[in-house]
Write the structure tokens for this entry.
Amino acid sequence: MVYELQKEGQKIIDKQTGLFNEFPIPKYQQWKQMVEESLKGASFEKKLVTETYEGISLQPMYRKEDADNLPYHNSLPGKAPFTRGTQTLSDGWEINQELDLGTPSAFNEVARVDLGRGQTSLNIVIDTPTKRGINASDATSEVGKTGLSISGVTDVTDVLKDIDLANVPIHVNTGANSIPLLALFIAHLEQEKRPVQELHGCIGMDPIAELITNGTLVYELEECYTLMADVTNWAIENTPNLQTVLIHGNVYHDGGSSAVEELVFALSTGVEYLHALTTHGVDINKAAGKILFSFSVGSDYFIEIAKLRAARTIWARIVETFGGNEEAQKMTMQARTSAWTKTIFDPYVNMLRATTEAFSAAVGGADSIHVSCFDEAIQKSSAFSRRIARNTSIILKEEAYIARTNDPAGGSWYVEVLTDEVAKKAWELFQETEAKGGIVEALKEEFPQKVVEQTASKRIGNIASRKDIFVGTNMYVNIEEKGIDWLAVDETVQIDDHINKVKGRAHRPVESLAAIPNKTEASIQAAKQGASLGEIAQATGRRLEAVVSVKAIRPTRGTIQFEELRQTINENAEKAGNRPKVFLANLGPISAYKARADFATGFFGVGGFDVIQNNGFAFAKEAADAAIASNAGIVIICGKDEDYQQTAIPLAKTIKNAAEQAIVLLVGKPSEEYEVSFKEAGISEFIHVGSNCYDVLSQLLDKKGVAAL
């Protein structure tokens, strides 16, 4: 059938049959009035309008007219301002899984397997010493802990054995200075007599992300900018398809920021780097093309789609302001599923979280996607967790066919309006940041830190109160859960062997390159002659001590406080042989207490308490006797509000008289008048849907003398 949808207030008519002419389309105000009547006095805004962490009010309904006058509603994929994507036709995204193996040989073994099973680009996560320009022989305690250790050309050769870089893009976050690692990679290619032009992907530096993550930097920022311009100019001439700047919005996301905040501070960093590059003589059209943005994608599905679309839109406007042409205005975007949302408990649920997040990244138009392994918060990846993560991306691309459509969300009134709202909110905060002198000056004033901290505090408060639900951690907990049955390979022996090999190498000292104009080329020549990563880093300006400091934004996860609470109980249970007991004093028939008993079971199950169930009690004394006999230190009264005054008070008094140390709580939120009488009877706390679950459980543990970890 072919339907002609008329405007509001008119009718739906099938052109061929005339059907549905009895069904006029109601006006929005008519619909809203009917909804408000059904709410029986409750607020429409409170019930149906959702306030996001971005300060956006999500409406229950979006209509065609909401999107009609949006500035880029009719733009096309591949056309400025690239809201709908940077390509006219696309093959989808690179499957860009992070590989975090600690030693070159182990990394190579896993990389070759994974590249043969669907991964399409090589995402090398380097360890902390390598990122800081320190050889493995000088930093033994941290070597290989967070990623790959590389100290020389030999290591790069081992890493890339039998990997064809002509057909495999490479992605490396090098920290504050990319020259040492790039020099080792280029030296390897030249030793292997491979054309350096085949290197593509990103070996990128981001000194500001390094500064904000650690709070310190062992380079002067101006030195970093000089190095950035030098390596970018070298890449323009020698590796035209290799990007040299990698801007991380992830550092803000992982600290608990909103989508808008992550977007804005990344874009402001982009402005800082564009200014630095162009000031040092790099043409704007070349400079913009050498920048890769990396964003995390969280669980708010539509907000994250809108964020990625808005990112392209605003970046195009920024580059245009710098004088960049339309090609230069295209943003290259890498996405990784959120580390903030991943949990230690019930880790298989992380597979589902990562899937929805990857879906957002794909629909939002990311150029490459890393799907986090379900055990990311627990350990280094295992073969199984990597396979599941990799296959998630493959299924989205090859079975769900997302890659067959450019901007699949385009035209959705909701997504188009939300994209515009995210962009407007982002532009406001962006202008505020730039008015402070840009991202660096703002960081010195602690502006981004305070903004992110405020949002993170709201998030954590909502998680604590279970307004934001994390299945398996603060809701629907599996108390009988066992740890995962497999672990990542123990790399201790391999790492020790790697360190000894590095110690045994003869390295060629490198004189300072401060006065040399072509630092990248000089570093490559030094690497070919045997200079190590550490020696090149020192020659290009790395200090032994920090020279720049700001307040850091530390990466964390939303559920850490609940995980620590539960781990405290688990460890104490192992020592004591039992968990803290909670007795449900269920009053009346099952219909009277069931809903609140279920609520209490879930509430205390979150912390790993042992909840003692029963079939209810007809009389207060019967319930009190059972509670006392249970030897539970905590008693929860569950029943109807109208029965509490008559039964809860004598029940609480009986329990407290028999066991003064017992803690008695009640499920419900009584009036102030009743609350006074309940507390006088010995009821210390009232739990309900508005309670801060984490605070209540923490205080109970403290009262019971259970020591925190």
